[in-house]
Amino acid sequence: QDCTFFTRKEILRLHGRYYEMAPNVVPMDYTRDPDVKLPMQLIINMPELKENPFKERIVESFSEDGEGSLSFNDFVDMFSVLSEMAPRELKAIYAFKIYDFNTDNFICKADLEKTLNKLTREELTAEEITLVCEKVIEEADMDGDGKLGFADFENMISKAPDFLSTFHIRI
Amino acid sequence: KDKEEDKSKEEDSCSQQNRTSRRKNCQNKNGDGKKAGEEGSRQRGKKAPTKDQRESENKERKTNKKEKEGENKQKKDRKNSTSSASSDSSGEESLSEEELAMLMEQVEQKKKLISTMRSKPWRMVKKLSVLREAQAFVEKFEGALGKGKGKKLYAYKMIMAKKWVKFKRDFDNFKTQCIPWEMKIKEVESHFGSSVASYFIFLRWMYGVNLVLFGLIFGLVIIPEVLMGMPYGSMPRKTVPRAEQATAMDFSVLWDFEGYIKYSALFYGYYNNQRTIGWLKYRLPMAYFMVGISVFGYSLMVVIRSMARNANQSTADGDDDNFIFSWKMFTSWDYLIGNPETADNKFASITTSFKESIVDEQESNKDENIHLRRFLRVLANVLIICCLCGSGYLIYFVVKRSQTFSKMQNVGWYERNEVEIVMSLLGMFCPPLFETIAALENYHPRIGLKWQLGRIFALFLGNLYTFLLALMDDVNEKLAEEDAVKNITHWMLLGHHNSSAGNSSTATPPPLDPADVPRGPCWETTVGIEFVRLTVSDILVTYITILVGDFIRACFVRFVNYCWCWDLEAGFPSYAEFDISGNVLGLVFNQGMIWMGSFYAPGLVGINVLRLLTSMYFQCWAVMSSNVPHERVFKASKSNNFYMGLLLLILFLSLLPVAYTIMSLPPSFDCGPFSGKKRMYDVIQETIELDFPAFVAKIFSYVANPGLIIPAILLMVLAIYYLNAVSEAYQRANAELKKKMQMQREEEKNKRNKAATPNPMLQDLEDILTPNTKSESQPKQAEDKKTESPTRISPAGKQGNTTALDRSPVTGGRGAAYTLPPHVFTTQPPPMGVWAPYPGQPRPRGHPLGPFPGRGRGRPRY
Questions:
Q1: B439-492: per-residue pLDDT in tens?
Q2: Which of residues 742-801 of B touch A (CB under 8 A)?
Q3: Distance between CA B135 and CA B69 in Å, rounded?
Q4: Where are the domains of chain B?
Q5: Reduced DSSP (H G I as helix, E B as strand, rest coil) percent helix, strand, coil of chain A, to 5
Q6: Complex ipTM more than 0.90, yes or no
Q7: A8-82: which CATH topology?
Q8: Interface with chain B: mutation pick from A89, A166, A167, highest number of B CBs within 10 Å
Q9: What is any one GO biological process for this UniProt entry (chain A) (predicted)?
Q10: B511 touches chain A (CB under 8 A)
C-alpha cells in the first residue's frame, strides 16, 4: 500500500484482473514471489487500454525490460501512476516517457509527428502536421534546441489545465 | 548551511550503516561499496548510504521472499523484523546519547521516505525493496531508541501511532466507499468522458443540498405538526369542505393535488396559527417562518461557497494561452475512454479541434466580410428576442385563460392543465429553434454554447416570471375574494352569536361541523399547488422525453436498421446525444421552482428529493443504454462555475417573490400558521414580545430603527467597494507578474541557447528510461547486480553532468539551483564539484553542448 495509491482491496481487484487475462499462467498465490510476466498483446487488449492510441507506449514504458511484458508489479505500478491520486510530477514523468517514442529522452519532431498521427488517425495533411509540430516546439521549447527535454515538457504540462483529469485510467 | 548539516549527518549515518551491514554481510561486501562509503561520504553525501542500503536489502531479500503488495504493512513489518532482529540486537547496546539523537533523525528521515515513496518514479521492484528496507530500519531502531526509562511508553506510543495510521487508512477506504453513486458515475465517465459525468456530479451535489433542505423542513415543520398539532378534521382548515368531499378520494387527486392532499401537511394552509403546540410548547409558526428563511440562507451559503471554491481552483490552474498546441497534443486524449464509439468521436473531435486551431492560427488576422456576419448576428438576436417575447406572451395568455377556466365548472383535463402543457412544450421546442437560429451567427462553438445556455435560461426565466406575474394577479383576485368571505363568516358567526344571545345568556358557539364552515380561498395553498403541479408535470415530461426521445428512438434505430433503405445509425435519426446543457438548465430551473414553492408547500422538497433520486438512476440507465457520446467537446471544469452562476441567479430571483409576499401581502385569515396577522413577519415581533425579556424587545426595536439600518447598509456597500478595489489591484499585480514571467522565459530561452542544461531529475528518470534488457533472463542471484547497476551508473552520469556544468559557467549555478526538486535529495547527491572518484569514466570533453545528459555515457557500462 505504501508503494502505490491503491487500497488493499483495489490491489486485490487488480490482481483479479491480472489473473483473468491469463488464468493458466498467473498463479493466485503471490506469497512465494513467482516470476511471471504477461506479454504486451494480452495487456493492450484490456478494455481500459484497448481504445487508447498510445497503448503500446504505455505498456512499454511501464515494463521493466522495455519490451512490453509486464510483471504484476509493473502492472500495479502502471495503474498506480495512472490513478487519480498520483501527483502531477509523477504523472508528468511517465507521460514524458510515453510520448517519447524512440526513447532518446527527448521528444523530437519525429515523436511529435507520431503522436499527432495516433491522435488524429492520420487524417491531417502533411503540411498541417508539420505546422502543428513546429508550433508545439515553438511554444514549449525553452532551450531552443529544437526538441523538448523533460524540463520543457514538465514546464508545459504543469500549466495544462486538464492534464490531471485526462491522464488517468479508472480500473 | 543546510547542506553541511546534511553532509555531517550522512557521514555519521554512513559509518553506522557500514558497521551494521558489514556485520550482516560477513565480508560479502565488495570494495566498491566501501570506497563509496569512505571516500564518497565527504563529497557525495547521500550516495553511500543508499548504496549500502541496496546491498543490505539485497541480502534481506534473499531471506524473506517477496510478498504481494496488497498485504498489510504490519505483516510485512513482522516478517522484516524477524529477519533483522537477530543481527541488530548486539550492535545497538553501546549506543551513546548523541548517536541516539542521530538515529532518531535517521528514523524520521526513513519515515519520510516511506511516506513519499509512492510518488517516486521508480520501478516497482526498487520501490518495494527500498520500502522494505526502510521499514525494517524504522522497526529495528524504534525499539533501540526507547532504551532509556520511557521505553515502554515509547513502544506503546509507537504501537498506537501505527494503529492510528491503520485506522486512518481504513477510514479513508470507508469514506471513499461511502460517496454515493461513485461507481455509477465512474462507469458513465469511462464511457462518455468527463463532461457527461460532470452533469451527474452536479446532480449529486444538488441531491445533497436538497437532502439538507428536506431534513430542515421535515424535522422542524412537518413532523412536529403531524405529531403534536391538532389532528385532521378538528378544525375547518384541516378538513375537506363538504362540497369537495365527494371527489376527494378520486384518482385524479394524485395528479391535481386537490381533495385530501390539499388539506394535508404538505401545504401551507393546513398549519394552525396556535402559538405553541404540544407538551413541548413548540412554537410552530415561528419555526415555519424561520425554516422558510433558513432554506434560502443555507442554499445561498452553499452555492456561494462552492462557487468560491471553484473560482479558487480555476485561478490556481492559471490560464496561460502560450501552449495551445502543446496542450492539444499532450493532454487532449482522455485516457478514461474505453468505449470504441467514444474513442471514434474523440479522434474526430481532436482532429477537428486541431484543424480549427490551425485555421485560427492561419487566419487570426484577416476576417473577411465582417458586415455580413454582424448583420446576421443582429438578425439572429432579433429573431430570438421575438421568440422570447412570443413565448412570454403565450404563457401570460394561457395563465389568464386558465383563470377563467378555473371559475367554470366541468372543465376538461386539457383545460385544467393547459399551463403546464404549454410551458413544457415551449421548453421542448424552443431550444432546438434557438440552436437553428444560432447557426446563423457562426460563433466559436464554446462561445456559441454559452450564448445558447444564456438564451435558454432567459426563456425559462421569462416563462417563470410571466407565470409568477399571472399568479400574482390571481392572488390579488383571491385577496379581494377573501375579504368578501371574511365578511360573510364574520356576519355568520355574529348572527349565531346574536341568536344565541337572544335565547339564553350563556354564549356557547353553536357546534358547526368544520366541513361546513365557509372559508376563504387561501391563496398560499393555491400558489403551493401551482408549484407542485408544475414540478410534477416537469418530472413527467422529462422522463417521457427520455423514454421516447432516447430509448424508443435508440430501439427503433437499432432494430429497424436491419430492414431499412438507408443507414439509420449513421443517417438521419441516429442515436441521441446526451444533452448536458439542457439537462443542467432543467435541473437549475427546477431547483428555482423548489425554492420558490417550498414556503407555500413544505412537501415540495420531499417530492424533489424523490425526483432527483429517481432521475439519478433513470438517467444513468438511459445514458448507458441509449445515448451516444458527444461530438462537441464540452469542458466541464471551466463551465462549472457558469452553472453555479445560473443557480445563484435563479436563487436570487426566486427569493424576490417569496420575500415580496412575506413582506407586503397579508396572509389569509383562516388558513396557515400566520392567519390572523397583518403580515407574515409579525410572528417575529410576537415572539420577541412574548417570549423574551423586555429589554431584548427594546434592543430589537432600536436595531430595527432606520437610523441604524441605513448606516449599516452604507457600511456594507463601502466594504464591498473596498474589497472590490483590493481584488482589482491583486488582479493587476497578477497580470504584471505574468508579464514578468513571460519576459523571464524569453530571457531563459536566450540563455539556454548557449548550452544544454543538465537536469539531475533525469537521473531518476534514467532508471526507468533505460531499458534493462539483461535482467529478465538472469537468474535470481543476479539481482545484486541488477539493482546495483543503475546506481553505479548514476554517479557516472552525474559526473558527466557536473563536468558539463562547470564547462559552461553561465548556466552552471543557476542550473543547479533551478533543476533540483526537493525530493531528489533523498537519493541523489547534490552536484557539487565531483571530479575525483571515478577517473576512469569517459569525460564529455569534446562537446559540452551535447544534448544528452547521462544515458549515452552510461550505456557502455551495460
A1: 777 666 566 767 777 888 887 777 777 777 777 877 888 778 777 777 776 666
A2: 745, 748-750, 752-753, 756-757, 759, 761-762, 764-766, 768-769, 771-773, 775-776, 780
A3: 14
A4: 100-178, 182-499+513-673, 713-755
A5: 55, 5, 40
A6: no
A7: Recoverin; domain 1 (1.10.238)
A8: A166
A9: calcium ion homeostasis
A10: no
